[in-house]
Design a protein that fits this description.
This protein is α/β, with parallel strands linked by helices and 416 residues long. The chain is built from eleven helices and 17 strands. Helices cover 31% and strands 21% of the residues. Helix 1 packs parallel to helix 2, helix 5 packs across helix 6 and helix 10 packs antiparallel against helix 11. The longest helix has 23 residues. The structure holds manganese (II) ion. The site of manganese (II) ion (MN) has 6 residues, from loops. The site of manganese (II) ion has 6 residues, from loops.
């Protein structure tokens, strides 16, 4: 272990002033992928995270929001979270745990057990308050020596950002500017309080937001997953922390040597195919740039996106081992053949394989819509007879010629 010289824990001779962190976010416990239950995958992730903690012995584990997928998570998802915390609580040299609420979490639900959890060195910050000290978490070693502090800023709703701005005397008329001012003022206040709690020692910040310049996943396959802070906030005072453990975006990325999104541990949509998942291991020393190591979790069930004509997709599915679970998205982007028949063929195949096709999309070009888009505006629909439009529309649905005729006859029978 490269850092064993510096990072001797809980023993005599530990060098003070260093802080080792594992940064994770966006667990989304209870999330389904197009209806598919994912509890077993989350179990693999949580066991992996416990192993990483046993191996690396961090001083703190930071969970930067979106613990749960929905505001009222199922009992099984809550049990998974509390069983994980229970294992941590009984661990020798357990790290300080800091959990903030994300935009998917209910602050009330996440915060309900916080007074109990703090007796187990687990600090939950469910919501931003005017008093910044509520979001400051000192981190100590086993001997009680102060190692640094965490500025644990949770997701802040737009309404709360406006309120924080007003409380800071920044009652700007423009709502977007007012929220940005509230975000900046609050981050600055919490960071200053964290610095004051650990003078001369490293300060790590946590935030659950979309920072300007960050890259969301292309969320075409699951629209609406990213909500809140859509305009993006400037890092502002966050950039002054020694490290910022960001959550909200599911793509692991760094905006500067100190600003990192850990990303979600599991791919939450097919838009995240091919992204490296896991957590980040961060070593902080006063006055030095953070040393960040990516801890990689190989996907418990890989996601596969197959695109092209039906033949390309058939070949892609044939290439997958039917004995190994995989989640597949099928996007038919070209070809003229009968899609209904092709989809039925996929269904027949799925019955005998561990490979599950969770999403199918007809993404072939739509000549009718394209033709209409090219027509001069004043005669768009008048150029065609109503039945012609119906016929073209039915053709785009990928129906069999028999079904097309059936629907067309039904439309004709209406007397159009
Ligand atoms: Mn999230």
């Amino acid at each position: 272990m490269i850092f064993s010289f510096f990072w001797t824990h809980a023993g005599a001779g530990a060098i003070l002033g260093g802080m080792k962190i594992i940064h994770t976010s966006d667990w989304h416990l209870g999330a389904r992928l197009h209806g598919q239950e994912r509890g077993a995958e989350h179990d693999v992730f949580l066991a992996w995270l416990l192993d990483a903690i046993r191996e690396e012995r961090p001083d703190a584990l930071l969970v930067s929001g979106d613990v749960f997928d929905v505001r009222q998570p199922a009992p099984a998802a809550q049990a998974r979270y509390y069983n994980f915390l229970a294992t941590l609580a009984t661990m020798e040299n357990r790290p300080k745990v800091v959990v903030t609420a994300g935009n998917h979490d209910s602050a009330a639900l996440l915060g309900a057990p916080k007074d109990l959890l703090k007796h187990l060195d687990i600090v939950v910050v469910p919501e931003a308050k005017e008093d910044p000290s509520q979001e400051v978490v000192p981190v100590r070693d086993a001997a009680g020596n102060l190692l640094g502090a965490v500025a644990a800023i949770p997701f802040i709703s737009e309404g709360d950002l406006s309120n924080l701005a007003r409380a800071a005397g920044l009652d700007l008329e423009d709502t977007v500017a007012r929220r940005a001012a509230g975000f900046e003022a609050h981050c600055r206040a919490v960071l200053e309080a964290a610095r004051a709690a650990a003078p001369g020692l490293p300060v790590a910040a946590m935030a659950h937001c979309f920072l300007t310049g960050a890259t969301p996943s292309d969320d075409r396959s699951e629209p609406g997953r990213l909500v809140g802070n859509l305009e993006g906030y400037a890092a502002g005072p966050l950039a002054e922390a020694d490290y910022v453990a960001l959550g909200h975006l599911h793509r692991r990325q760094t905006l500067s040597p100190t600003l990192w999104y850990s990303g979600s541990p599991l791919a939450m949509s097919f838009a995240e195919v091919g992204q490296t998942k896991g957590a980040l291991l961060v070593e902080l020393e006063p006055g030095k740039a953070p040393v960040v190591r990516e801890l990689t979790l190989s996907a418990p069930v890989p996601l596969v996106r197959l695109e092209g004509d039906t033949e390309v997709i058939r070949e892609g599915i044939r290439a997958l081992d039917p004995a190994h679970p995989a989640y597949v998205e099928v996007r038919v982007t070209k070809g003229e053949d009968d899609l209904a028949g092709f989809m039925a063929e996929l269904d027949a195949q799925a019955g005998t394989s561990a490979v599950q096709i969770l999403r199918r999309e007809n993404a072939r070009p739509r000549p009718l819509i394209e033709a209409l888009a090219e027509l001069p505006k004043e005669n768009t629909l008048r150029t065609y007879e109503p039945l012609e439009i119906a016929e073209m529309r039915l053709r785009e649905e990928g129906l069999t010629p028999e079904d097309q005729k059936l629907y067309l006859d039904m439309i004709r029978s209406l007397g159009i």
